[in-house]
Design brief:
By secondary structure, the chain is an alpha/beta fold. The protein contains 22 helices and 8 strands. Strand 7, helix 8 and strand 8 form a beta-alpha-beta unit. 33% of the residues are buried.
Length: 512
C-alpha cells in the first residue's frame, strides 16, 4: 500500500483562503485532502502555495463521491445553491460546517440550516473559531479550542479526532442546537469586559465631576491647566481603590446570601452572579488604574505639586545689605511623604505579584492553596495597604479640619474599602468562619425550604410527586434556563447545574 493510500481522505468544498489553509493543515496532519471546485481546471492552487502541490482539485461532484467527511468551506450565501444540486450524493456523509454569521442569531444557526437543506447527511459545526492565519501558520496551537456540535455522538468523536490530529483541543458542545452559541463566539467583542469597563468609567466620571466641583467651582484651588495630570491623577487613584474594593466585596455578598438561606445549594441573583464572574476583569482594571496613578505620581513628585510631603524653608532677606547674600536651600521629604511612598510602593508590588499569578504560565505552576493565598489573602492585604497609603495622606488634613471631613476626597474614597475590609474581618472570626465552611461542605440549615424548586426536586428524590403546575414549571424554568439560549434545559439537569453554580461561583477567588 502506498503512503498516500494509507492516509484518511477528507474533502473540502471551496478553494478560498480558509479552504486552502485548512487543506494545508490537514495534509501536514496526515490526511489525503481533495478540494472541490466548480471550475477545477482554473484552480491551480499549487501556484499560490507549493505546499499544496499534493492536494487534488476536483469538481464538486467528484469531491463528494471521493470522501465520506466533507468540510463545507464556501460563503454561506452560496451554500443553498451548492448543496441542493447534490442532496442525494450527500446521503450518510459527515458535513463539517465552518461558516460564521455576520450577525448573531438565537433562532437558528448556519449548521441547522445546512441540516434542513440536506436532511440525509450528518452535520457537524466545528472549526469556525479558528482563523485562516492560525490554521495555516500557527502549528504550536495546542491551546486553541475547537468547539464541536452535532446531533450524532459518533460524528462528534470523528471530528474531535481530526481536531486532535491537527494539534487543536476539541470541546464537545453537544447537540446541533449549540451551534447557535458557537457561531456567536467569533462575533463577540470582549463581552466579559463590557460590564466591568462600564462600571469603572462611571465611577471615574463621578469622582472627576466631584473633584472639578470642589477644586474649580466651589474653591479655586488649582489652575485649569492642572486638570490633565494633577486632578486626573486623583480621579484615577480614587477609581482604582474603589474598583479594587468592589472586586473583593463580591465574595462577601455571596457569603451573606448563603448564610441567609442556610445552604450553598441556591442560585445567586443574576446581578450577583455577573458580579462574581466579572471579578477578574474588575481586578485587572483596578491594577491598570493604579498603574496610571503610579506613573502620574512619579511625574508630579516635587514640592511644587506635593508641598505637604516636603519640608519647607523660610528665608528672610534683611533690607540695606552691604555684602553679597548667598542662599542655600535644601528640601527633603517629611514623615508624611516617606510613609505614603513606602506604603504605596509595597501595595503596588503586592498587586503586581497578584496580577502575575493570573498569567497561564504562572497559574499552571501553582497548586490550589498557593493560588487561593495569592488571590484572596494577598488581595485583601493589598487593599489594606492601599487604604493605609490613603490614610497617611488624609489623616493630617482630617485632624486640622475635622468639620470638613465629609468633603475630603481621601475620606470619601475609603468608605467602600472600609466596608470590604470590615465584612472580611467579621467573616474571619472563628465562629463565623466555621459556620460558613460547614455550609460549603454541604450542610443545610433548613433542607426543605432553603433550596430552589429544581434543586429541591433532586435533593428530596421525589420526581414522581414533583408539582407540574404552570406556576411551578415557570419558576423552575426561570431559575434554570441558560440566559443565552431560548431553549430551556431539562428540569433535572437544570437543578444539578444550580447546585454546581451556587458552589463554584462563591469559591472561585477573584483574579487580578
Amino acid at each position: 500500500m502506498s503512503s498516500k493510500e494509507k492516509r484518511r481522505r477528507v474533502g473540502i468544498l471551496g478553494t478560498g483562503d480558509f479552504a486552502r489553509a485548512l487543506a494545508k493543515r490537514l495534509f501536514f496532519s496526515g490526511y489525503d485532502v481533495i478540494l472541490g471546485s466548480r471550475k477545477p481546471e482554473k484552480k491551480a492552487i499549487y501556484a499560490m502555495d507549493q505546499c499544496l502541490c499534493n492536494v487534488q482539485v476536483l469538481s464538486i461532484e467528484e469531491c463528494i463521491k471521493s470522501a465520506s467527511i466533507i468540510f463545507l468551506a464556501v460563503h454561506f450565501d452560496n451554500v443553498k445553491e451548492l448543496l441542493t444540486e447534490h442532496v442525494v450524493k450527500l446521503e450518510g456523509k459527515i458535513i463539517i460546517d465552518v461558516s460564521n454569521r455576520e450577525r448573531p442569531s438565537s433562532v437558528t444557526s448556519n449548521a441547522e440550516l445546512v441540516q434542513k437543506m440536506v436532511p440525509g447527511c450528518i452535520v457537524v459545526k466545528a472549526f469556525n473559531v479558528i482563523s485562516a492565519y492560525a490554521m495555516e501558520n500557527d502549528y504550536n496551537s495546542s491551546s486553541k479550542q475547537v468547539f464541536i456540535a452535532s446531533n450524532s455522538e459518533n460524528a462528534r468523536d470523528v471530528v474531535a479526532n481530526i481536531a486532535k490530529d491537527m494539534n487543536f483541543r476539541p470541546v464537545d458542545f453537544g447537540g446541533l442546537f449549540a451551534a447557535r452559541r458557537i457561531e456567536k463566539h467569533p462575533l463577540r467583542l470582549f463581552p466579559e469586559w463590557k460590564g466591568p469597563l462600564g462600571f469603572a468609567v462611571c465611577v471615574f466620571i463621578v469622582w472627576l465631576i466631584f473633584l472639578i466641583y470642589i477644586y474649580f467651582i466651589e474653591e479655586s484651588v488649582y489652575k485649569w491647566e492642572q486638570l490633565f495630570v494633577k486632578v486626573l491623577n486623583k480621579a484615577f487613584c480614587m477609581t482604582g481603590i474603589t474598583t479594587l474594593s468592589v472586586t473583593y466585596l463580591a465574595s462577601s455578598f455571596a457569603t451573606m446570601v448563603q448564610i441567609y438561606y442556610g445552604t450553598k445549594h441556591i442560585r445567586f441573583s443574576r446581578w450577583l452572579d455577573k458580579w462574581l464572574k466579572n471579578r477578574k476583569q474588575l481586578g485587572l482594571l483596578s491594577f491598570a488604574l493604579i498603574s496610571i496613578h503610579v506613573i502620574m505620581s512619579v511625574l508630579t513628585m516635587s514640592p511644587t505639586y506635593l508641598s505637604s510631603w516636603y519640608h519647607s524653608t523660610t528665608i528672610t532677606i534683611p533690607a540695606n545689605l552691604t555684602v553679597p547674600l548667598q542662599l542655600k536651600q535644601t528640601a527633603w521629604m517629611n514623615w508624611k511623604g516617606e510613609a505614603a511612598c513606602l506604603v504605596g510602593i509595597i501595595a503596588y508590588v503586592v498587586l503586581s505579584f497578584i496580577c502575575a499569578t493570573t498569567f497561564p504560565s504562572v497559574t499552571d505552576t501553582l497548586n490550589w492553596r498557593e493560588w487561593r493565598f495569592a488571590q484572596s489573602k494577598m488581595g485583601h492585604a493589598a487593599l489594606l495597604l492601599s487604604v493605609g497609603h490613603v490614610l497617611v495622606m488624609g489623616i493630617p488634613g482630617w485632624l486640622s479640619k475635622p468639620h470638613l471631613i465629609y468633603k475630603s476626597i481621601t475620606f470619601l474614597c475609603l468608605i467602600i474599602p472600609w466596608i470590604t475590609l470590615l465584612v472580611k474581618l467579621v467573616f474571619s472570626f472563628p465562629l463565623v468562619d466555621r459556620y460558613v465552611m460547614k455550609l460549603r461542605k454541604g450542610w443545610e440549615r433548613r433542607e426543605k425550604n432553603c433550596t430552589a424548586d429544581c434543586a429541591r426536586s433532586v435533593t428530596n428524590e421525589v420526581y414522581a410527586s414533583f408539582d407540574m403546575n404552570a406556576g411551578k414549571r415557570k419558576a423552575c424554568t426561570d431559575a434554570c434556563t441558560c440566559p443565552d439560549d431560548p431553549m430551556p434545559m431539562m428540569n433535572f439537569g437544570s437543578s444539578i447545574s444550580i447546585i454546581a453554580s451556587g458552589k463554584g461561583q462563591l469559591e472561585n477567588i477573584p483574579s487580578l
